[in-house]
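User: Need the bound-state model for protoporphyrin IX containing FE:
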Amino acid sequence: MQATEAPSAAKPCCDCRVLEFLDSSIGKKVMVALAGILLCGFLVTHLAGNLLLFVGGPAFDHYAELLEANPLIPVAEAGLVVLFLLHIALSVRAKLANNAARPVAYAYGADKGARTPGSRTMTVSGSLILVFLIVHVLTVKYRVGGSRGPDLFAHLMGWFADPLYSGFYVLALVGVGLHLSHGFQSAFQTLGVNHPRYTPLIKKLGLAFALIVGLTFASMPIYFGFLGGAK
Ligand code: HEM
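Assistant: Bound-state model below.
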């Protein structure tokens, strides 16, 4: 007589395991980290393109026209929207879940250890960046409000001439710097890059990246808005 096989426990399929992972708290953190790293890539290309503002109106407007004519740009823009939404929605969910799991705040100084100005202000800086993004995209991409001419350069200069607008940019870029100063190294830790030899280097790189990106972007409203550049 043949031995009857013991019923095997149903194994989850590969797709189900991926979905389960993505739904877990570590899975969400990994997606926040990956989206954050890709957004850093966007910031670098955006910064490089905007440096043409210092070359002058014709160079910047020519670059803007080339971008507009590129058929791949709408695809990249859609990807960017998905990345921002994913990064924001999942970090808000993680923050809420974290607060619910730890309703009583740490006693003063109890978790001071590795905390930095960047790590302490992630929610505030993230919210500031979100407000900045809404104002920024409405005013420069959809060209709502004050303009000095039809070209993008002239339009931007019209906005930078408003000290409130330029001041808000500088404030938001302090937020961007703070956010990156913690977010950059935190993303690598979440992805498991945590090694006594490399972690200090990644932290220094994160700080350098935050300073370079924050200061270079901020130099634009400061130069064109407050120092009379391009007048
Ligand atoms: C002073 C610094 C900055 C300047 C001068 C600047 C300039 C511009 C310009 C001219 C555009 C419109 C391009 C077009 O017409 O399609 C744009 C779009 C955009 N910018 Fe900035 N930008 C700055 C900082 C930032 C920062 C710090 C972020 C992110 C935190 C950012 C995120 C975006 C996004 C998401 C778009 C829309 C991209 C698209 O859908 O095409 N910008 N920016």
